[in-house]
Amino acid sequence: MTTQQAPAIQVHGLEKAYKDLRVLRGVDFEVARGSIFALLGSNGAGKTTAVKILSTLLKPDAGTARVNGFDVATQAADVRESISLTGQFAAVDEILSGRENLVLVARLRHLRNPGRIADDLLARFSLTDAGGRKVATYSGGMRRRLDIAMSLIGDPPVIFLDEPTTGLDPQARIEVWQAVKELAANGTTVLLTTQYLDEAEQLADRIAILHEGRILVNGTLDELKRLLPPAKVEYVEKQPTLEDVFLSLVGTKA
Amino acid sequence: MSKHFFGDTGVLLGRSLRHITRSPDTIITTAIMPIAMMLMFVYVFGGAINIGSGTSYVNYMLPGILLITVASGIAYTAYRLFMDMQGGIFERFQSMPTARSSVLWAHVLTSLVANLVSLVVVMLVALLMGFRSSAGILAWLSVAGILILFTLALTWIAVIPGLSAKTMEGASAFSYPLIFLPFLSSAFVPTDTMPTVLRVFADNQPVTSIVNAVRALFAEQPVGNDIWIALGWCVGILVVAYAFAMNAYRRKIS
Asked: For the ABC transporter domain, which residue ranges apply (chain A) (predicted)?
């Protein structure tokens, strides 16, 4: 089938303006199946707008976008069957328990055995013990993990993560990175947006830098590094970073 | 309409009802203000208000109190919708293969259920305070029908700020004038003692005809034209509010 070989995401000449503010000014990129693609940019660069268009929440002013072979404008329902969106703020129901959140999403995706799906995901994201508790009592990292678990229900082939680690502590951030890597290892296509350079460096197969509504560069980490003059050899004393110190003191397993 | 509309609406209705059973304070706060007003009007002002002979004051003012109950209850409809919009869970539902309008309908039906429970609570207190009616089953069903229609009309009004408000206060402030409206009607005093301008307004605003129709049904009096004017107002408000709410909704999802 052609949709199997075609890139999971194809974006062409995408434009979007809010009144006079031109947020996207002609964005093009493709994401290969099963890869992790990072859209890197500072606040206001247009990352969230791009994700919202790809997840059918916004209509573009111009340009086309195809997700899993379906056009976001004319085949929105098929696109929604193929994707999952984890927005910038954990979109979980605070009043329900973690398990109830998962069951809710499984029901809305019209799957069989929502209870079993929920239990499996709770186990996979180390939330089994917290599963019966109200989400309002969860920590930021647990909430984000639940959020991502909710996005995996129904095994959508394409997942959008909009700034998945913004506001998380270093441990929670590593937990999320681990989850994202596992996803891609299982063949899911991941498009993530981030403003953290190290996050893109850690996770992404390809990185595109979005600035003022345009893609400045798009390539693998090595390709991007080659854009600058070749590395010089310098002798620098290797000090542990504050992150190394923090993580060794609080004893994370990751 | 999507083939999953009814199933999805049911799932989401279950979610919102769970919110209410976990914080029953929304039902209690909805019922407490009308009950306090009822106590004050019956035991403080009631003795001094001349409504003509043949009926007790609690019988006279209960219809107006029931409308106030609904008007204060729908503030929570706007609040619940607003919280979903803020938290990102609305976007999560919209990006899933779920019938899109189900999200809105679930809130509308939740509003109906919550308000009916509050109405029953207020009704029980009125019975303790001496409210009596010998009305038959048909009259009671007519009262229930009018109140349901009134709740739906006000609920669709509440959807508009729920979708478009910028702050939580803004989302619920709209209900204050609605709570106030019964005071400028025949709900607590006969309108013929009012100054001309006020009387003309009171006689021709929706609350008066609805109150008069409900009061006549409870007292087994002929309802005359009032019931048709009342139904006309309810349906009219419902249709206009629905159109505006749907317009606000479409702007939100495109």
From this structure: 9-237
Its pTM stands at 0.85
Q: How far apart are CA A94 and CA A99, in angstroms?
A: 12
Name the pLDDT band for B15 (thresholds 50, 70, 90). Answer: very high
Whether residue A231 is predicted with pLDDT greater than 50 in this model: the reply is: yes
Pairing of strands A189-194, A158-162: parallel
For chain A, the domains span 2-91+157-250
* Nearest residue in chain B measured CA to CA from A103: B11
Question: Alpha-carbon distance A241 to A243, whole Å?
Answer: 5
Domain range for B248 is 5-253
DSSP track, chain B: --TTHHHHHHHHHHHHHHHHHH-THHHHHHHHHHHHHHHHIIIIIGGG----SSS-HHHHHHHHHHHHHHHHHHHHHHHHHHHHHHHSHHHHHHTSSS-TTHHHHHHHHHHHHHHHHHHHHHHHHHHHTT------HHHHHHHHHHHHHHHHHHHHHHHHHHHH-SSHHHHHHTHHHHHHGGGGTTTTS-GGGS-HHHHHHHHHSHHHHHHHHHHHHHTT---TTHHHHHHHHHHHHHHHHHHHHHHHHHHHH-
Fold of A2-91+157-250: Rossmann fold (3.40.50)
Cβ atoms B106, B15 nearer than 8 A = yes
CB contact under 8 A, A91 and B12: no
Q: Which amino acid is at B132?
A: R
How many domains is chain B partitioned into structurally? 1
- Best of B6, B92, B100 to disrupt the A interface by mutation (most A CBs within 10 Å)? B92
Q: What is the ipTM of this complex?
A: 0.85
Substitution target in A58, A95, A111 with the highest count of B β-carbons within 10 Å is A95
User: Which residues on A lie below 8 Å from B17 (Cβ)?
Assistant: none
Percent of chain B with pLDDT over 70: 98
Rounded CA separation A227/B197 (Å): 79
Interface check B132 vs A, CB under 8 A: no
pLDDT of B115 over the 90 cut: yes
Which residue out of B2, B17, B95, B252 would a mutagenesis test of the A interface target, given it has the greatest number of A Cβ atoms within 10 Å? Answer: B95
Q: Is B253 on the interface with A (CB under 8 A)?
A: yes
* B8 with A108: Cβ contact below 8 A: yes
Cβ contact B223:B217 at 8 Å: yes
Alpha-carbon dihedral B150, B152, B155, B156, rounded to 10 degrees: -110
| Structure token digits, residue B225 | 């034209």
Q: Are A157 and A165 in contact (CB under 8 A)?
A: no
